[in-house]
Amino acid sequence: MTRTFYDEMYDAQGVCRPHYHGFASWLAQTPPEQLAQRRREADLLFHRAGITFTLYGDEEGTERLIPFDTIPRSIPLSEWRMVERGCIQRVKALNLFLDDLYHGQRILKAGIIPREQVLANECYQLAMQGLDLHRGIYAHIAGVDLVRDGDGTYYVLEDNLRTPSGVSYMLEDRKMMMRLFPELFAAQRVAPIDHYPNLLLSTLKSASPVDNPNVVVLTPGRFNSAYFEHAFLAREMGVELVEGADLFVRDEHVFMRTTAGPRPVDVIYRRLDDAYLDPLAFNPDSMLGVPGLLSAYRSGNVVLANAIGTGVADDKSIYPYVTDMIRFYLDEEPILRNVPTWQCRNPAELSHVLANLEQLVVKETQGSGGYGMLVGPASSKAQIEAFRARLQANPGAYIAQPTLSLSTCPTFVESGVAPRHIDLRPFVLTGEETRLVPGGLTRVALREGSLVVNSSQGGGTKDTWVVED
Amino acid sequence: MKLSIRHETTYSYDNEVRNSIQYLRLTPQESERQHVISWELGLPRPARAQVDPYGNILHVLTMEEPHASIVISANGQVEIDDSREVEHDGHEVLPYLRFTRLTQADDALRAFAHEQCRERRDRNGLIDLMHGLADHMTYLPGSTGVESTAAEAFAGGAGVCQDHTHAFLACSRTLGLPARYVSGYLLTEDSAHLASHAWAEVWLADGWYSFDVSNRLARPERHLKLAVGLDYLDACPVRGVRRGGGCEQMHARVQVQQ
Predict the structure, then answer these.
(1) What H or E segment, with its residue span, contains residue A109?
(2) Rounded to 10 degrees, what is the CA torsion of A144, A148, A154, A158?
(3) Any idea where the Circularly permuted ATP-grasp type domain is (chain A) (predicted)?
(4) Cβ of B241 and A124 within 8 Å?
């Protein structure tokens, strides 16, 4: 089967797209040795900056450098405006859905989503039922994963509403590019992104009814794969980075232990999953959280960003309904498309999936990080048969989608410059309003032909530019 | 029937505890079946009541000063309408279809549930399930621990009321019936030896029905309900963490009188 891919830099005739002209002529003029030298510098600088990533499933817990590619992914401004509007529309609808779900449940009463699918879902948190949040915001920070099919159409692959990560790479990749290739940024206007930490801090502050609230970043600790990012964001925002043991609850209020005595905490940007937040209410074995935190939260004395229970809206079994949510809550047509999805919980859809495994991507509804998935066209017969058995044993845990071709972008590889598949994760912040910085994180699958861009599966990153058309 | 409860729990520690926090579900609620005449918690420090995610009354006791022991008492009188079998409380029912780590059904529990109930999803089917579990799992204190799962206790063929209830919940949810854990008190002939009790409730079309596997009772009798949840961890009367203290001794006394 031959597939056609949309290339971000060159059109089907191999002609450079207009928004890449500036970069392409610079690339043609710069001697290859000089580029190679700069790439070695980049590796060195990233090592020094400590931007590493701990690989799960690797017994040694190896810290690995996420490969950084010096050819940027560039998006023309007019196209970005559409993506931006689409992401804002989507995150608004998802926040309205969560508010509705944990209050009046209009969307369930209207029969748009089956009750059991939501209420019996383990990500639906009874602790949130009837709880009023300031401004009614649940997902203060969202990471919307986008890919482009063969004709360049953008599709939303998933909405990450729990603790989306990767924004530190977005910021560091830009810093690196500006340091290595200042001449590129002098020659053309690339939309700035360095105000992201300020936007994040103002988003977190606006989530609290308190004047000038005390904001902290809660990390599971230095063994977490994204610890670098937690420390980075706390530093960039100028707020404290804390672990569970640094906080305590007294009489339904949260305090931070400091040398000057307890200091009240108003907003917790938590990079810890729901199950670990409070050992007295959730997983009792976890020492990562803060005992009593749920009682403080439910008393309205502290804000968690994101809120508890957002996972029910980004669950892959709920994903197919997001376009309906946009119509239901906003009375608008979706700007960004959903990937057609088969729900294996329905017997008719399951038999279609089983009959077409070679062509489909099958994912766990609860999975993330690309671990529990099958990419049919890229798998051997034996892998497909092994996955078939898992799927048949527990069909409700899986969804399937057609294999999108994913756009490509020229990338430095061992043999020179070659096209590699990419995706895009813009970060959507919701406070008084819903905002994005231009672009987002571009991840690139470095293995030839691979469609899996996750850093845990050998993916790298690129700087993402929004440039005037 | 009027029940008088005196429940005192003493936690003592080998060393001083630096600080501790407890979630307490020790306060019964007004319902169709129970009318609270009087109820008082005795705590070492004042604690405000709030409603927890399952609709239970929760007190959060935070102790920031060093302490060597904690005494928690609950005393009161409750009028029970023992003619009422079915209860309603306006809470969401479908979340109780969900399995938890403690109530996960394994192949053995799934097979057992289907064998006992076959096509029946009614009260009679569940009564057979209740007796079946009571036959299969001997009531034997010490045979399991507080962290034992339904599947472990079922495989071991023995347990206490907590294990009976977890196994019953695993089976009911396997059959597609919403089921919840209930913690509370039970009046028996030999009340002096009885600690707190646990049983199950299953939603059958028009309300919550009680199933007490340990006592083979398919209706509440001298049961006083304190809290409900997906499993023991959500509904247990006391759940806490502490810093320091070394080993803990717990001494509980429950007196239930008519």
Answers:
(1) helix A106-109
(2) -30
(3) 72-445
(4) no
Q: For residue B93, give the chain A residue with the closest CA.
A: A119
* Cβ-Cβ contacts under 8 Å for A286 (sequence gap 6 or more): A275, A276, A279
**CA distance, residue B23 to nearest chain A CA (Å):** 7
Grouping H, G, I as helix, E, B as strand and the rest as coil, residue A154 is strand
Q: pLDDT for A177-228, tens place per residue?
A: 999 999 999 988 999 999 999 999 999 999 999 999 999 999 999 888 889 9
Does domain B2-82+237-257 fall under CATH 2.60.40.2250? My reply is: yes
Tell me the per-residue pLDDT of A78-113, one tens digit each, with 9 for 90 and over.
999 999 999 999 999 999 999 999 999 999 999 999
Which residue type sits at A130? G
Q: A196, A426 in Cβ contact below 8 A?
A: no
CB A248 within 8 A of CB A265: no
Amino acid letter, A221: G
- Which residue in chain A is spatially nearest to B239 when comparing CA positions? A280
- Alpha carbon separation from A453 to A459, B1, B89 (Å, rounded): 5, 66, 48
Nearest to B53 among A119, A127, A250 (CB): A127
Taking CA–CA distances from B64, the nearest residue in chain A reads A250
Query: What are the residues facing A34 on neighbouring strands?
Result: none
Is there a contact between A295 and B60 if contact means CB atoms under 8 Å apart?
A: yes
Helices A167-180 and A196-206 pack at an angle, to 10 degrees, of 160
Domain B94-235 annotated CATH 3.10.620.30: yes
Domain boundaries, chain B: 2-82+237-257, 94-235
| Phi, psi angle pair for A124, to nearest 5° | -75, 120
Looking at residue A16, the DSSP 8-state letter turns out to be: B
Structural domains for chain A:
340-402 (3.30.1490.270)
Phi first, then psi, for residue A83 (nearest 5°) are: -60, -45
Which tokens go with A305?
A: 């960003």
Read off the pTM: 0.93
Residues of A in contact with B239 (CB under 8 A): 280, 284
Task: Calculate how close chain A gets to B243, using CA atoms only, in Å.
Answer: 10
* ipTM entry: 0.93
Taking alpha carbons only, the member of A469, A461, A464 closest to residue A51 is A461
Interface check B58 vs A, CB under 8 A: yes
